[in-house]
Structures are given as structure tokens and as C-alpha cells.
Amino acid sequence: MDRSQELYANGDQNLEANLIDHDESVPQTTNYTRWLRLSIYVFLVLTCQPIATILGRLYYENGGKSTYVVTLLQLIGFPVLILFRFFSQIRQPKSIDTDFRQSPSFTTLVKVYMCTGLLVSAYAYLSAIGLLFLPVSTFSLILASQLAFTAFFSYFLNSQKFTPFIVNSLFLLTVSSALLVVNTESENTTNVSRAKYVIGFICTIGASAGIGLVLSLIQLLFREVFRKHTSSAVMDLAIYQSLVASCVVLIGLFASGEWKTLPSEMRNYKLGKVSYVLTLASAAISWQVYTVGLVGLIFESSSVFSNSITAVGLPIVPVVAVIVFHDKMDASKIFSIILAIWGFLSFVYQHYLDEKKIKTCSTNPVEEDTQT
Length: 372
Known about the structure:
The chain has one domain (31-92, 103-358). The chain is 77% helix and 0% strand. It has helices spanning 2-9, 16-19, 32-61, 67-73, 79-91, 106-133, 136-143, 146-157, 164-181, 186-190, 194-226, 231-256, 262-267, 273-300, 303-313, 316-324, 331-371. One of its GO terms (molecular function) is purine nucleobase transmembrane transporter activity.
């Protein structure tokens, strides 16, 4: 643990060493079940994220108008995480905790959950506005810039090094998003004015920046506040920040008066009342299953890997949107997808090099001890 913290302080941002304490004594032959779980979590992330995004747009397309409802769908299903935490604790064998560092106080935990919950509610609301005013394909491509924002905020909060691969990723993801703001064809696909299109673009960029800020902040919190990098601490943070964010959005829903329009919205929904309920319920479930997959990837690998898999799923949405909503896939969007994928690969490759470097550094002391 001390060795991984030393490497962390030197700027090698491998969250696998900080969030999960792996048992290195387990033989390689027993890792098949871990890879199976890893594959399941990847599948959940890659399928549920596009489904949830498409269902959110489907709600808007058929008469839904409440941005607070779409925001709440991303958060309100957090009780699923409680069940996941319960069963994951049963599955994992109890280990003897040899780390006697003081745990954060109740007041500190409340502050952490409140701050992160407010940030989560803010970027969830911004993403709901972006999804309202933008074609779902454009929305998802802009949201892929979260990788660039994660690297940007990690530079200030976690001493992230700006290597050539990270700089290349930042540049490509920025250009990829910039291409979409000048895409005038997108106005016709959503029947919104140019002004609303720009508002949607700005809000989506804000949501992407919020995601990057929260991920970098959580990385800082686990190093400076929580200190004990256990699966239960990660899960507790996900649950309580979702609880706080849900309460904030519910307050906004009732304070804005949008809740009064929901009955008439259900009656006038183009696909019918049953479809209205099914759309909202399916979106809420999809978001939480996606969250389960995301947290599962953190357990089994690292938050860097989970964030990367999230970025992989984003280019899937434009392809589905062309089929479902008949979004126009013009040259600028195709080029934007190519740049986004290129930027993603550059980002992942840099963290692969970081992880390889940490593994090499962690095995060298062992080899030296055996030689002596």
C-alpha cells in the first residue's frame, strides 16, 4: 500500500492501486471468474448507457418536456446499488484490515457526500438540457469530451502529467466537439432554433466538464480523505451522492412547478400512458444497471478503465440514433466520431503505459529482495 501511494504522489495516476486492494497471492488460474465478471460489467456499460440515452430522447420526442424528470431518471434508481453492495459483500471473503489509519469523521463524510451529490445533480441537469436541444448523436459525441476534462482537472487536482498522448487526446476530443457546433444540419433534426442548439451544446459541454471534475475530485478524495481504498467505500460514495443528488432534483422539480404538468404530459404522450410509464421506468433501470456495471469495473479493474469503457459506449449512440430517430450522419459527424475514437485510444494507451510502469516498479523491489 505504501509503495502504491508513493507512485501515486509521483504522478502515476493508476486508480487500480488506490481503489482496490488486490490479493496478489491468488494464482493466475483462478482469474477466469474475474474475467467473466469483468466481461459482464463491460457488457452492462456498453449496452445500458446507449439504451438509457436513447430512452431519454424518446421521452422528449413523444411529448415529454420536463428536464427535471430526465435528470431524476439518471439518479433515482440508486436503491439498486444498495442491493448490489449487499450481494457483493456476501461474495467477497472477509479480510483482516491491517490499515489502522483513522477513518474520516461523520461530519467529513456528510460534507463529501453533499458536495459530490450537488455536483452530480448539476451535471445531470445540464445533460438533460443538452439532450433536449441536441440530436442524440451530437449529444453523445460531445459528451465523449469527458475524457479530456478528466485529464484537465486531474492535472490540477492529482498532478496528472500531460504526456504527448494525453495532449493528443485533449486536442482530438476538443476538435471533435468543435466540429459539431458548426453543424447547421442538426437544427432540422430536432426542430429547435440556432440559439437553443447553442444552449444545448454549451450545457452538454458543461455536463462533460462536470463528469470530469467529479471523477478527478473522487480520485483526490480517496487519496486525501477516505484513505482506505475499499469496495465498500466506493459503493457508499456512489449511493449517498446519488441520494443527495436525487433530493436536490426533487426539490427543483417541485419548486419549479413542473410536477403539476406531469399528469397532462402522461395523458398527451404520443405513445400512450403505458408507454410513458414504461419509458421512464426503463430509463431509470437502465441508468442504474449502467452504474452497477461502472462500479463493478472499478472493483475489478480501475476507475480509469471504467471511464474508458464509458467513452467507448458513446460512439455507439450515434449509430443507434440514425436507426431509431433518423438522425443525419453527415461528413462532419463521421469525422467527429473518428477523431473521438482516436482521442480515446490515445488516452487509453497512455494509461496502459502508466499501469505497465507501476507494475514494473512494484515487481522490482520483490526481485531485489529475492536476490539478496
